[in-house]
Amino acid sequence: MNRQTKTFLMNRFREMGISPATRHGQNFLIDLNLHRVIIDAADLTEQDVVLEIGTGTGALTTLMAEKAAGVVTVEIDGHLFELASEQLIDFPHVTMLHQDALKNKNNFDSRVLEAIGEKLAEYPDRRLKLVANLPYNIATPVLSNLLLCEHVPHSMVATIQKELGDRIVAQPWSKDYGALSVWMQAQAEAEIVRLMPPTVFWPMPKVESAIVRIVVDPAKRSTIPDLRFFHQFVKAIFIHRRKFLRANVVAALKHHLSKAEVDEILAEMQLSDEARTEQLDVSTLMRLTELVRSRAPNWTL
Ligand SMILES: C[S@@+](CC[C@H](N)C(=O)[O-])C[C@H]1O[C@@H](n2cnc3c(N)ncnc32)[C@H](O)[C@@H]1O
């Protein structure tokens, strides 16, 4: 049964006596062709275990379940969890969790990570893929944190705000280039697959959306010796990305490196005092991180 038309959703919400919760980013994708675009972009096969954050009514989950070896799907809302449980009753390889997917903005909840671990153990040699129409308020932590987890995804295909998609694929000197662009591009190929107007959702969000595909590149990733350090250092120096790089590094490494030591590092990299953080490309930032880490290995944000 098609449970994701505007009429179906409006009727079910009315029957349940509830309205979509803005605080949980409940904007349901009602253009069913776009469900197909998401599933095709994820290229799901029997080789895959899928993680979905935001089960909703289970419409996208059903399409994933038809293709993948196993699915772990997480939903915070009790009413939707119940609705999706009915929809997914015939799919024993789908593990449904009723909870907040995140413990806090830097970490997934441990029960989600355990469920992924169990599913991967149940289906050995499978690849983990995130496929989701993400709640927009947690899209950044979900995409960023998954790349720090024990079970590294093969890829992530997600519906997110267009503005976030622009930041993920942005290049140096552009207004959208920042810590998120560097974090993603240092270890993955990222692209915007499709732009979407608000009209393809019910209720309509205030912003444009995009489907992004981020495919992790293990070779690139292996060139980052300490992912956590890199993640935090890049975040720290991009807080004021338009400022001079020197000032940003000095401020970030306060109490860990003297100004003279920062100057030595910048000289070694042949970066002038006038260099700005926003101009540095990913490989330059990786080298800079390693020079800083060799002098201040215990630094954390
Ligand atoms: C954009 S809707 C997507 C629903 C459905 N997958 C679809 O494609 O239409 C986001 C869903 O995520 C759920 N959600 C919001 N915050 C969450 C969180 N922190 N953890 C788990 N689910 C969450 C919402 O209740 C909602 O069902």
TrEMBL record:
GO CC annotations on file: cytosol
Pfam families reported for this sequence: RrnaAD (PF00398)
Subcellular location: Cytoplasm
Binding site for S-adenosyl-L-methionine: 27, 29, 54, 75, 100, 133
Domain of life: Bacteria
Signal peptide location: none
E.C. code: 2.1.1.182
Location, primary (coarse class): cytoplasm
Gene3D superfamilies: Ribosomal RNA adenine dimethylase-like, domain 2, Vaccinia Virus protein VP39
Record-level Gene Ontology MF annotations: 16S rRNA (adenine(1518)-N(6)/adenine(1519)-N(6))-dimethyltransferase activity; RNA binding
Enzyme class: transferase
Reactions listed under catalytic activity: adenosine(1518)/adenosine(1519) in 16S rRNA + 4 S-adenosyl-L-methionine = N(6)-dimethyladenosine(1518)/N(6)-dimethyladenosine(1519) in 16S rRNA + 4 S-adenosyl-L-homocysteine + 4 H(+)
Alphabetically ordered keywords of this record: Cytoplasm, Methyltransferase, RNA-binding, rRNA processing, S-adenosyl-L-methionine, Transferase
Domain Ribosomal RNA adenine methylase transferase N-terminal: 34-218
HAMAP family in the record: 16SrRNA_methyltr_A (MF_00607)
Family: Belongs to the class I-like SAM-binding methyltransferase superfamily. rRNA adenine N(6)-methyltransferase family. RsmA subfamily.
Main function: Specifically dimethylates two adjacent adenosines (A1518 and A1519) in the loop of a conserved hairpin near the 3'-end of 16S rRNA in the 30S particle. May play a critical role in biogenesis of 30S subunits.
This protein's name: Ribosomal RNA small subunit methyltransferase A
Organism this protein belongs to: Bythopirellula goksoeyrii
